[in-house]
Amino acid sequence: MTPIKVLLADDQALLRSAFRVLVDSELDMQVVGEAADGAEAVALARSTRADVVLMDIRMPGTDGLTATRMISADPDLADVRIVMLTTFEVDEYVVQSLRAGASGFLGKGAEPDELLNAIRVAAAGEALLSPVATKGLIATFLAQGGNVAEGPDGAEYSERLAALTGREREVLVQVAGGHSNDQIAERLVVSPLTVKTHVNRAMAKLGARDRAQLVVIAYESGLVRPRVE
After folding, report:
1. More confident residue, 197 or 146
2. pTM assigned to the model
3. Rounded to an integer, what distance in angstroms lies between the CA atom of residue 174 and that of residue 160?
4. Which secondary-structure segment (H or E) carries 65?
5. Considering Cα of 85, then 108, then 38, then 95, what sign does the dihedral take?
């Protein structure tokens, strides 16, 4: 088994050391580099060909958000998955992180098993959006006014939505709710493989890097409207 190559990007050396010990203790993953700022993270992502980058949002110099945009914009790094590390699971930069190309985000206070699972989930190409995180994402959209479909990105995505089939739209709505393929399959009475096919087609048609961006697109296009509980 080829281990998952993990790059650690955080300006706190002590935290990086703790992450390295944890990651290197697993047989299916290994740390291939450490970066203290975003610029170094981008350079190491290129040189190490990391599979997953654990990226702190707030770093001196080039921050994690900028670094994520740079990695996502590089065609040679299309397979690199980025998990944003935040002090709180939901903060002001979460939506921007997902727009920039992050596969998801994780609170720095997460349990060791959660961190290791996040790496595996991201490496597998899935989105790291827990129900709590998805709820927080929706809350952020509400804080921004709720109706983001009127913005330039929303208008662009609305046009792309026209290319989706009815079933692909249904699946996209379910993805935006934070549901897994198995849960969606049960809800729509289809096989998980069928759901995966619809998700992949929706990603291709909408130009989404991964599942996490599908959630953002669903709200920015106005296909899904945030609800106040």
Report:
1. 197
2. 0.74
3. 18
4. helix 64-73
5. positive
